[in-house]
Amino acid sequence: xxxxxxxxxxxxxxDPAVLRTHVSVVGAAGSGKTWMAKIIAEEALRAGVPxxxxxxxxxxxxxxxxxxxxxxxxxLLRAWEELQERMEPRILTPGSSHGxxxxxxxxxxxxxxxxxxxxxxxxxxxxEEGLLVAVAANLVSLCACGGEEESQRTFxxxxxxxxxxxxxxxxxxxxxxxxxxxxxxxxxxDSLIRKSERERLARRLNTFVQGxxxxxxxxxxxxxxxxxxxxxxxxxxxxxxxxxxxxxxxxEKHFFLAALATELYRWMITTVDAxxxxxxxxxxxxxxxxxxxxxxxxPPAKQPLIRLFTQGRKYGVGCLLCxxxxxxxxxxxxxxxxxxxxxxxxxxxxxxxxxxxxxxxGGAPPWVAARKGAPKGSFVARxxxxxxxxxxxxxxxxxxxxxHAGAWSPDRVERAVTEAGLRGPGG
Length: 427
Ligand SMILES: Nc1ncnc2c1ncn2[C@@H]1O[C@H](COP(=O)(O)OP(=O)(O)OP(=O)(O)O)[C@@H](O)[C@H]1O
Ligand SMILES: [Mg+2]
Known about the structure:
This protein is of the alpha/beta class. The chain contains 14 helices and 13 strands.
C-alpha cells in the first residue's frame, strides 16, 4: 500500500496485512487526517480488500468519483487506473432514496445453526446472548422511553430470546410480543418491567413500524453484508459508503450506526472464516470521538463499535478511524489499533498522550515532540514490524485518486449517483 513519499522522494509503503490489527489517524483539525484515511481506503481497495465507510458529514461520499486524470502525477497514473478498474462504489442511504436506500427491517438475529461452527457450547451460548443483548440495547436506546432502561433491556432481551428466529424477525413481531408477552411464555412480566413502561415501549416501537419514524425500517433493500461485500463481477472490489446525512437528526444517525455495527458483528461471527488469516473488510469511521468518546458518556453505537475493535482482528475485519485528539476517543479502542499515523499535533496534551503509546516500548521516540507544528499532510507512521528505516520518518500523503471536496448535500449525492448509474435495484 503506497501511503506517500518522504522528503527525499522515497515511497513509504505499508503491508495490507497490518489493516487487520486496526489503524488510527491522529492529527489536529485540517492536518490531513481524512485525506490520509482515504489513501488507506483506496490502497485497501487496490489490494482487493472491500471497504465499508461511514460518512456522517458527507465528505467521504465523493470517493465514488475518480480524481481527474490530468490532476494525477504521471508516475502514479498506473496506480490510479488500477483503482478505477477495481473499485465498485455503492452509495447507501439509510432512510432515504438519494442513493441505494437501506432498510433495517427485518432484523437479523443469530439462529442456532448460524453459530453451529463455534464448537464450545458455552462460548456459542455467550455469543448468541451477546448479540441479543446488543439488539435489545439498540432498540431501547432508539425508543428513548426514559424510565428504567435496564428493565426495558432485560425484558426485550427475553422477548428476542423467545421469538422464533429461523425466519427473519420483523419489527412488527417484536411489537406484538412486547404487547402480549404471555403468548411467548414469558411469565411474571410485571416483575421484569412496569406495565406502563412496557406499554410505552410497545407504542414507541410501533412508531417505527408505521408513521414518519418508520423510515429506517421501511423501503429499499435490507442491510445485508454478504450482499454488500460481493462484487458484481470477479476482480471488482466493493466500496460501500454509508451516507448518514439524509437522516433528520443525530439520534437516528447514532441508532443506525449502532444497528449497523451490531449487524456487522453478527455477520462476522456467523459467516467469516476466522482461520483464513486475510483481511476481509476495512471498516472506516472518521471523527471517532462522536461515536466512541472517552469517559463515561455512552452514545448508542459505542459498545457495538468497541466490540468490532476488540473482536474484528480475529475475523479479518480491520478498522480505520480518525481523531483530532487521542484523548477524546475511548482508550480500549486506541489500545486496539496497532498502527498509528500521527499528523500535526497542536495541544501539548496530545503530544503527551501520543508519547504514552510508546512508553511500553521504552519511552517516546524524539519524533513525537516534532509533530507539534508539523505541516499539513505530513505524517509519521508506526505499525507492527515496520522496517527500521521507516521509524520516525515523516512523509507526505500521496495524491488522492478519488475526489476530496467539501461536504455533499443529499441532493448532490443523488445527482452523482444518478449520473454514475449507481442506482440500486428498484431505485
Ligand atoms: N497529502 C496532501 N496533499 C495535498 N493536500 C493535502 C494533503 N493532505 C491534506 N491536504 C489538504 O488539506 C485539506 C484538509 O485535509 P483533511 O480534510 O484531510 O483534514 P482533516 O484533518 O480531516 O480535517 P478536519 O479535522 O477538518 O476533518 C484538504 O482539503 C487538502 O486540501
Ligand atoms: Mg476530516
